[in-house]
Amino acid sequence: MNAVYKLSWSPGGQYLACPFQTAPYLSIYKRVGKSLIKLPDPDVKPNGSANSTTFSPDGNYLVVAHTASPFVTIYKRSGDVFTKLANPATLPTSSGRSLAFSPDGTYLAVTHFSSPYLSIYKRTADTFTKLANPTTLPSYIGNSVAFSRDGNILALGSSSTAPNNLILYSRNGDVFTKADLTYTVPSTTVYSVEFINVDDTVYLAAGIANAPYVILYRLVNKELVKQSDIIGLPGIGNGLSATGNGELLAVGTREC
Questions:
Q1: Separation CA 60–CA 232 (nearest Å)
Q2: How far apart (Å, rounded) are the C-alpha atoms in residues 224 and 185?
Q3: CA 113 and chain centroid, separation
Q4: Mind listing the pLDDT tens digit for each residue in 11-46?
Q5: Model pLDDT for residues 87-118, shown as the tens digit of each residue
Q6: Rounded distance, CA 232 to CA 244, Å?
Q7: Do 38 and 27 contact (CB within 8 A), yes or no?
Q8: How far apart are CA 240 and CA 249, in angstroms?
Q9: Distance spanning both ends of the chain, measured CA to CA
Q10: Which single residue of 58, 193, 232, 253 has CA 20 to 30 Å from 85?
């Protein structure tokens, strides 16, 4: 059986990217009515087990994080054809784990399994250039990353010990700086992060290794305020995904 990890839909739901643990490592499907039709494989496939995929907000770029160098593979879409772009000049240092585009498609965050555990790229046309590392970084595996809706905050969950297992970076131009926030930091590994927007209210959910398995914060006057625990989750919060209006939060768990 070929394990599938983080699937991703293109904006509008026209394309579905499926990362696999064995060859061909990536399949892309096009939705036609209620059917999914597999497209021909890209010209160059990822050369290692694929852990995550993401589309750019305009649907023109598809990125795959995987276990063999170059650790991240970037495709540009033209119609139904996905063509590999040149690798970034500076690559992640090891297996790519999770991915996130900023809402305007300018920045791409990649977490990985070795120092610095987070790499941030700026896109100029079809070129992705690595930015200088933030001053504060996790000290162990970067598990998950997410941008806020306005693109000004980047949340990162990692296997570091507290307080750097949950880091919020504030963006000023191309510089990402650990935000000067006070909040209750999880005492254990943070596997997933997700921003939730309900009208003008912004929440951050963090999936963690121990009960209650998801911690929910509200962003108030640039501070994170912990909310009441979510009750009844059966195990580790491995994955989080919120609807666009914030009314629903899906939690993928691994029972202990």
A1: 39
A2: 10
A3: 14
A4: 999 999 999 999 999 999 999 999 999 999 998 999
A5: 999 999 999 999 999 999 999 999 999 999 99
A6: 24
A7: yes
A8: 7
A9: 23
A10: 193
